[in-house]
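Hello Y.,

Per our agreement to keep a running log of every chain we model this quarter, I'm adding this entry. I've kept the format consistent with earlier entries: sequence first, then predicted structure.
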Amino acid sequence: MFLSFRIAVARKNTNCLRIFSLYATVKPLIKPNQTSVNAARRWLFDSMIYFVQKNATGYPAHNHVGIIIAHMPIIYTQTGDEGSTGLLGEGRVPKFDLRIEALGALDEATAALGLARASANTPEIAPLVVEIQRDLYRLMAEVGATLENAGKFRTIDQERVKWLERQTEAITAEIEVPREFILPGEVPSSAAMGLARTIVRRAERRVVELQHAGGLENMALLAYLNRLSSLCFALELLENRNAGKSTRMAKEKNDRDLY
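Predicted structure for the entry above:
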């Protein structure tokens, strides 16, 4: 764990007060806590203030009216630099482990749904997708837990699957659902939803693979992802309709007799 600090030096001037900043990162020898943070701050002050005064500003110390040292949290931990990662439970696994592959695919699905939500023109889509993204967050917690701890994070059940089914049925009741494959891309918002659908399907495959390998017990997770891809398809069609666009079929009229 690294601690990052910002040192700001204020220099007096006849007409203004100028602020000079310097950033520094240190790695404490002990686990970071408030004591070690304060010690790091003192070390930075003692060892770097001369550099700040002489090199960053070029003016002697009596022209400086104050020193401000602020803790800046950083977002990396370096614990995965050797290619392993932790789970919600004991132990670490390689980053190519089936469980981590499933988590990565679910993370991609959540991001793709976020893009689709930001692109959507139909007002009711955004709050619906937000609720789904939060479901996926909870689903990822169970997938990311060891088998011994998975039950502690279990919130996705058959009731949530039924909720997704109700959302899908409500949307399909007001649109025309084609009976053949379509070409995504009539408008940007429907294209984004189509992309989200395919990524959700990939996440489903990864979770199924994990379950078949004995790494998952809750079958409701598989059913949820399966229904979610169907809902994404319905939302894609809804976006097309509300944009005044007809959904394009994958087969051309002259090809349909061949299949």
